[in-house]
Amino acid sequence: MILRTLPLLRRAVDNFRARKATIALVPTMGALHDGHLSLVRLAKRRAERVIVSIFVNPTQFAPTEDFGSYPRTWKADLAKLAAEKVDAIWHPDVKTMYPDGFATRIVPEGAATAGLEDRFRPHFFGGVATVVGKLFTQCRPDVAVFGEKDFQQLRVVAQMARDLDLGVRVIGSKTVRERDGLAMSSRNVYLSVEQRRAAPELFRAMKQSAARMRAGDGFTAALAAGTAIIRQAGFALDYLEVRHAETLAPAASVEDAPLRILVAARLGTTRLIDNMAV
Questions:
Q1: What's the pLDDT tens digit per position in 208-248?
Q2: Closest alpha carbon to 260 in 209, 194, 197
């Protein structure tokens, strides 16, 4: 069932609710890969009805970013979701999500101002929080499933749902990786053959840094080793940091557990992000 207008979506959600069915939402921007499908499968385990939204949200892209060229693979996405037997696909256009005169934004703080992604993309989490807030009120899910690859985003959305009493339980799903360790991402298609060979070094750098921390190395030395791997692979590094996994506050030692290593780096024009528990 493909839904493109709010009245049709509301009717579908009302029908699910009339049957006392629980609802899970999987928000996506399309260009679906196995990582997205793992979210759908988790959603099916957590609720009786699954809605997948496909909407490339313009408000989370800066003018210099890749909104116009972001991969759009509608027919392939439909085939994948049909194979997973999802109950509904919410596919609004920009005018539906942001009609003329739209003037309200959600401006998150907390994890959204942790000095990670927000330092390089200051527009990003306001755009994410606003569109996800709309998706939650439109689809009225009991649970919503997000991938852990976008770890700061996961923390921001979970906090928003709690703070605004939206009645949605936000669930994180483990990052799905290629065999060589590269986190699956829609943007991986931008990588050249040579860049694709180098890209798994991001994962190796995190693994080595985490192993050194667990072995007792100080954070500075452990992260320096990871930084060297990343730069030797040809990346331009934005950040490689260890933070408290719940608050994303800076961590001083392994006693600040649970800990998370977070990284963002660019290969040519392609920016990759990843993270790992310590």
A1: 999 999 988 889 999 999 999 999 999 999 999 999 999 99
A2: 209
